[in-house]
Amino acid sequence: MTTLTLAGTEADPRRRLKVLASQEALLAIAVIGLAIAVGLYNPRFLAARNLSDVLLGNAYIAVAAVGMSMVIVSGNIDISVGALIGVLATISGTLAVNGAPIVVAWLAALVAGVLVMALQGAIIAYLRIPAIVVTLGMLSILKGGLISVTGGKWITDLPDSFHLADIELFGVLPFPVFLMILVTILAALWMRYSASGRAIYAVGGNAEAARLCGISQPRTIVMVFALHGFFAGAAALLYATQLRVIQSTVPPNLELTIITASVVGGVSILGGVGTVIGSTLAAVLIAEIASALVFIDVSPYWIRAVQGVLILVTVIADILRRRRMAGA
Amino acid sequence: MKLGLAFAFLSATLLAGTASAADKRWDGADDLPVNPLACAAGEANAAPAAKPYDGGRPTNAADKAGKPITLVDVPKLIGIGYFNATSKGMQEAAKALGNVTVKTDGPTEAKIDEQIKFIDNYITSGVDGILFAANDPVAIAPVLKKALSKGIHVVGYDANSTPDAREWFVNQAEFNGIAKSMIDSMANEAGEDKSFAIVTSTFTTPNQARWIAEMWAYAQKCHPKLKWLETVEAQEDNNLSFNQATTLINKHGDKLAGLFGMTSVATPASAEAVTKAKLCGKVAVVGLATPNAMKPYVNADCVKSVVLWNPVDLGYAATYVMRAVVDGTLKPGATSVDAGKLGKLNVVNGSEILLGSPFIFTKQNIKDFDF
């Protein structure tokens, strides 16, 4: 049950030190430290407009990473999410240009997201097929299906009211940033304090123990995937409403960016450990690095290499931490 | 703290790399020789010396002159407006000719390894001719040569292979022609002594690299006061292009008077970034793009010139060229080829067919196009 106490509820004298060394704290320090370092090199980086644009343009990745984190914590993985976001964006945009009420166009993305993901969750949980196989299959279905149905025609002439991402709350806070923060906080509280939220950790940490505690593993997995589908739908809306055109294709490597945010955020790829605060901070860090590379005149292609290094460092640190705990 | 240490190390490495990056300003251009056009509009450039035919030849191709033929078109990727338009042109040509069947099939992402697999499969299943737009000029050569060796005719369009791997290549616009249109539009809209930046796909994409090299050469010759700030890569990704353009606007502030979009994805995304930053009229956006994606910005007067050739005509011409090759009317050494409604097209560079001057979409004409 060690994994269940990792979130830090024990009254350990070294707890304060532990909190400081947590993945979330490290990421927060990295986000702020990088901003200061790049700001010293080029003060324009710290302009409110730029910081807001960095968050605005990448909030959808953080929102999708919240669902992905739940899936990974539950001991699963989903590589179909990038393709699903492309499909949901296209569904929503197609409804909007064909005269459906805007609210219906928005809701359709959420509902379709939940349905597709719940279906995958059910196949994984009840037929006991590994998540990587099921979601790989779904990736191909969605990718091929999208191109066959749309013929790759871009969606243009979207009505102005469709552009959810353009809304600014109180005239300053862009809606995508607001949604990212809201979703992260709510999901973090739910995962930490509710019985069903804790069940995700139990299922991913030790499935047998969870079963003995009376937690239904299949039901938890279906719930996690359904929620993940909801967040994917929300991410698709932000993604679709940011620009005036929807490409009707699957955004390249989007699932990898989302998984990277979760893993770098401290969600253990082995399941049972991690928080959505970590994944959101990691999504912000990755977006910040991409922008910083332009500001310091380095090809943004390095972002891939940087992401790779971040993943390896995080995973190695996670494995070492587990070994140390197992040895202690 | 390991993560923190690794991070500090990375930051240091990246910062150290900036000194060298600052010297190399024309990122994204290739190193091939450039041939800038004359500055004045319409003035003919000195014709380069005629080059002998340097294309390949199929081995024992069946004689199908005048007979029905089946073609496959393998573009860089399917599912984008641009290649949908070339595909449409091919269908139009097939209909006009009456004895050609052409089918478009290809990867859903611009990946050379997948494109090779598609071509290989069609060689096995058997077609009379292959039309292609290469994702990589060198990597695609072996599979095209294999097609030639099996007696299949090979004609390229849009993005070339090495010349000996295909018979003819339909060149949508010469690189220096596009470069002239782009730089002239920028100088006209942003101002002769202003600064601009470029959003491209990748530094190694052949077409984009060639255009940027020619743009640099033409700007030096005809608009020497234009200042180039930098080129950023954004692949063919809508949101990445938007984020990159936004970052450029935030980074350079008032200094930035223009943005070039080098792909049909980067140009609308750059226009969106300028619109969102409320800088329409202050930052000119000039670029290559398909009309539908640009209509909102052109109609809102945020973008004045969209530079492109007509991709429908390009696909149409490629199909006519293939028919002429099969019929034996376009042979090595020919100086022109008949391309139906497009009239006679000239042979350039040994084994290329030139489509014509670039086309500029403006507020007046953009509504006439739907792709």
Provide an overview of this structure.
The complex is a heterodimer of chains A (328) and B (371). With 328 residues, chain A is mainly α. Chain A contains 14 helices and two strands; from the N terminus they run H-H-H-H-H-H-H-E-E-H-H-H-H-H-H-H. Chain A has one domain: Orthogonal Bundle (ABC transporter involved in vitamin B12 uptake, BtuC), CATH 1.10.3470. In chain A, helix 4 (48-73) crosses helix 9 (195-205), helix 4 runs antiparallel to helix 13 (276-295) and helix 12 (254-264) runs parallel beside helix 14. The longest helix of chain A is centred in the N-terminal third of the chain and has 26 residues, at 48-73. The radius of gyration of chain A is 20 Å and the shape is globular. Chain B has 371 residues and is α/β, with parallel strands linked by helices. Chain B folds into two domains: 69-173 and 310-356, 3-Layer(aba) Sandwich (Rossmann fold), CATH 3.40.50.2300; 175-308, Response regulator (Rossmann fold). Chain B has ten helices and 14 strands. In chain B, strands 2-1-3-4-5-13-12-11 form an eight-stranded mixed beta sheet, sandwiched between helices. A six-stranded mixed beta sheet of chain B has the order 7-6-8-9-10-14, with helices on both faces. At the A-B interface, helix 3, helix 4, helix 7, helix 13 and helix 14 of A face helix 1, helix 2, strand 7, helix 7 and helix 8 of B.
Keywords:
heterodimer, A: 328 residues, mainly alpha, ABC transporter involved in vitamin B12 uptake, BtuC, two-stranded antiparallel sheet, 2 strands, globular, disordered N terminus, B: 371 residues, alpha/beta, Rossmann fold, 2 domains
Which CATH class of chain A applies here?
Answer: Mainly Alpha
Distance between the termini of chain B: 53 Å
Shape of chain A: globular
- Record field, number of beta strands of chain A: 2
Q: What structural class do helix, strand and pairing data of chain A support?
A: mainly alpha
What is the SS-derived class of chain B? alpha/beta
Most extensive chain interface and residues per partner? A-B, 61 and 54 residues
